[in-house]
Amino acid sequence: MKLKIDPKLGSAAEAALEPYVAKLYTTPGLRIMAIVELKQDDKNSPAPDSEAGLWVKARIASVEVARPEQEDTIREAQRALFLQRTATGTLTEDGQVELAEQTLALTGGMLHAIEAARLTASMKHWGAYIRRVNRTEQLTMTELRHELDTVAQGLTEALDHARDDEVDGEAGI
Asked: What residues does each domain of the chain span?
């Protein structure tokens, strides 16, 4: 599937960018931090026997440009979103996530970023596990319950909930 960006801006986006046009024109390589909203504008629906690839066209619906004193905050948000999207790690034998070196480097040592990356890597692991189990044909109820218990235990360990906090199979408050 291919993404196409419509060059025609929404009126709100155009109005937000208007004050920066001259500066963009006169300053080679200028970068401007902004928050952008994309809107699905069009898509193709090829016939089943067609060789045409799928594509979707998005349009920039709105843009808010950061003032110079806000740029670091926007960059930090961008780094956090990138970290969340790309976090990887390995599940150890005791159910803990060991983050990949590249992921740790992206956290900059910030505890909240490390925890977000650890949880993201764990959710990716358990999501893949569930998809593998789901592809298994003809599971018995006992096998299915076992797999669900395994996932529940793994998710609980990812959140570091002590088993003592559980009441009747549900996490205590």
From this structure: 1-65, 70-173
30 contact partners, CB below 8 Å, separation of at least 6: 23, 24
Q: How many CA atoms lie within 13 A of 64 on its CB side?
A: 5
* 152's tokens: 């529940």
pLDDT at 134 over 80: yes
CA 160 to mean position of chain CA atoms: 22
**Contacts made by residues 12-15, CB under 8 angstroms, sequence distance 24+:** 12/61, 12/62, 12/63, 13/60, 13/61, 13/62, 13/63
Give the mean pLDDT of 102-115: 78
Phi (first) and psi of residue 81, to 5 degrees? -65, -40
For residues 73 and 33, the answer to whether their CB atoms sit within 8 Å is: no
pLDDT for res 127: 92
Q: Is the pTM above the cut of 0.90?
A: no
